[in-house]
Amino acid sequence: MIFDKVENIALYKGMHPKLDIAIDDILSRDLSLCPCGERIDISGGVFFSAADVTLKDRAEIRWECHDEYIDLQYVLSGDAEIIEYGNREDISGWDKSPNGDIYFSDDERLRLPVSLAAGSFAVFFPHDAHRPAQGENGKVSHKIVYKIPVK
Q1: Reported confidence tier of residue 74, pLDDT bands at 50, 70, 90
Q2: Residue 8, SS3 per DSSP
Q3: Are 64 and 102 in contact (CB under 8 A)?
Q4: Predicted structure pTM score
Q5: What is the model's pLDDT at position 121?
Q6: One CATH from 3.40.190.80, 3.65.10.10, 1.10.10.1800, 2.60.120.370 for 2-149
């Protein structure tokens, strides 16, 4: 997992060629103009969408992870979103969703909570589990999620 402020995002170039596509897009596009819910394809299979995420209590959120994609989650505005991070192998009870490349777990053990305030981003690789959208119930975080193919 990577966690940092967007002003430092260029430091992570060179880690993965398709992650570089997402980083270059963040550096060149006014993401505040992107409509919520619309998938925007970039290149190399990389795409993103904007969302207004209603934050929930931890008990209402499940762990998730992916095999085929790296997630880059970037909070643009609104309330800080707590995203818990854990090593995928340390979390039990994974079930694959029939709706694409996503696994869920109801494991209740607390892992590392990371606060994504406006201007912060986190990158989750396939070995990283994450439990997003936690925060003060009913508050909203406006964020961008990039889906970056591993291959």
Answers
A1: very high
A2: helix
A3: yes
A4: 0.95
A5: 98
A6: 2.60.120.370
